[in-house]
Structure formats: C-alpha cells, structure tokens
Design goal:
Structural class: alpha/beta
Helix content: 40-55%
CATH architecture of the largest domain: 3-Layer(aba) Sandwich
Distance between the termini: 33 Å
Mean pLDDT: 95
Shape: globular
Radius of gyration: 20 Å
CATH class of the largest domain: Alpha Beta
Strand content: 5-15%
Order of helices and strands: HHEHEHEHEHHHHEHEHHHEHEH
Number of strands: 8
Low-confidence stretches: none
CATH topology of the largest domain: Rossmann fold
Length: 367
Amino acid sequence: MVSEFYEAYSNRHQLAEGWKRAGKKIFGYFCNYTPEELIYSAGIIPVRIRGSAENIDLADAHLPTFCCSYMRSALDQALKGRYGYLDGVVFPKTCDMTRALYDVWRRNIKLPYYWFLPVPGKSTDEAVKFFTHELRLFKESLEGYADQKISDKSLKQAIRVYNESRSLVGEVYKLSLSDNHPLSGTQVFGILLAGLIMPKEEHSAMLRKLLDSLPAPNTSRENGTRLLVAGNNFENIELLQTLEECGGEVVIDDLDIGTRYYGSTVDENSEPLRALAERYLRKIPCPCKHPAEPRLEHMLKLAKDYRVKGVILVIQKYCDTHLYERPWIESRLKEEGLPVLAVEHSDTGWSGGKFKTMVQAFIEMLE
C-alpha cells in the first residue's frame, strides 16, 4: 500500500497525461507559496514542478551552471517535453532565481497561461492586506482563463479539501512521535512527494486507506538514531535510504515539501481570500521570507517533540537563500545542544559514497 504513493510520484507525467486526455486542465507551479486552492477552485489540477536526477543537457543554454540546480533541472525537464501536458505555470515571488526563471520559461516554453504572483517578504498586517489584493487579481485572471466565476462557495470547498490533506499528513507525522512506528522516513517521503502531484482528493483517499490499514506498533522493530532532516528541495530518495542504511531514522522534517508545505491550515470561517493570504504569509517561513526566527522555533519544537538526536541540513547546491541562512541556523541549533551535519546536494551528479561516509561518522558520533 505504501509503495503506491512513490509509484504514483514516479509515474507523475504519465498520470498527468491521462488527466489531460480526459479533458482536464493542468497547471504547474513552483514553491509552497503558491495558493493551490485558487487553482483548484477554477477546476484546474495543480501539480508541483519538480526536477530530476537526469543530466542537465538543454537548460545550460539558458542558465549559467552556478544557478540553483533544482531550477536548472526543472527547466531542463520542460525543454525536453516532460511537461508538455501543462496548460499554464504559476511563479510566486520567492527567491531571485524563481523571478528570473519566469521570464526564461515564458520565452522558451509556449503555454496558454503564465502568472507571476508577488508574495511579500514579510508577514505584517500591511503585507497580508497587499497579498489579499494580489490574490484577488490572481483569482480574476483564473476566472478569465477558465471562463467561469470562482464563487466563495467553491473557494471554501477547495480550502476544506486542502485542509483535510494537511490534517491527514499530520496524522502520518504523528506516528513517528513514538518508537516502533510502522513507517520509515523513506516511506513517509514517498507519501509527501505523491501529494505534490496528485489531486488532493485522490491523495487523501489513499492516505485514509493507508492509515486504516497500518499495523500496531512493531515492538520487535529495531529503532535507529532519531534524526530531523531540514532544507529545501531534493528529488533523490537514495539520500534518505542512505541515512537509514547507516543506522539513522528520519522521524520528522523541516522541508519545503514537508512540514512547511503540509503544516498550517487555512481558517475556514474567515473571508476566503484574506484567510489564504494569512495562511501563506504566516505559515512556517522558508529562508526567502522574514523573519527567520519562527522557522528556528519550529525546528527546535520538532526536535523536542520527536526526541531527535541530530539534524541533517540538506541544501540544494547554489541555493542562495538557504546557504545564506545556514551559518545562523546551524550555530543556533548547536547552541541548543543539537548536533548538525550540513550537506550541499544536487540531484544530478549525486555522490552517494561521499554522503554515506559523512553520515556514518555523524551517526557514530551521536551514538
């Protein structure tokens, strides 16, 4: 049952092509600051644009090699036709690379719809007011493209669907609070990935079925060294498998595709656009947003609640925002008594042997 999630993710392009043949509209989006609820309420399936472990061949003609490896890989996938089923792409303003990539995609990938969404860097009341206005403009643009009005009723229904997804993933995370939990970190990662590229109702239905079928805690299962994995975006599931092979056990994360994506629900009783603006600006922030202290507090709380012994920082190569924040995060975690292993990572050119050596030494130190 658990393998079905990673299988869906591995076959994401084939699944999307099937939806396209069935007459569905599909939008790609970057980053967890994209309010998918608005896209969903317009009758469009939102899917997260992902990179690949494939060699980057075509994107280097458009971007220098010192750009974020994830963004280069995502562009390369599009230039190779992997995302030929998309009807549009939404770019939220997060890092400078996302802003630049918006222009590169529009010039080289011809699609009916593009939207650049200005996301404020702060979460003040003034920022929420501004972002609410920007979401209204985005909503009007979607209505024009889809040739249908997005009612408050349909938007609130979309919010309920996405809140249910967040709640169910939260139940999966809670399993790791105790020892002898039934799912490995690698299996949970597959669940998270599938939720990025599937319609939320389908993903939630699979999650409910999984949660109902899980066995009782297995007391004979050998527990590894409890770890928190933090960082931005990575594609390579071998990274987590290596951690487990070396005696580590990833029990929780602070990832762009993990708790920072699935955490924080939208208020279902408030005006929907304002509620969306508040949720997306006041969720656990990524390093491209300010202030950074809530993210540190989030990581420290997770470390305490999940009884982790160490933190693995996995940072995409050439990710300016995460690399800029790394010294501060690393030093503050160490001040709180949490050992940290920081690793720069690229899905292409993955050096599994080097990573394994580093992890083995780190886990031996923790033990």
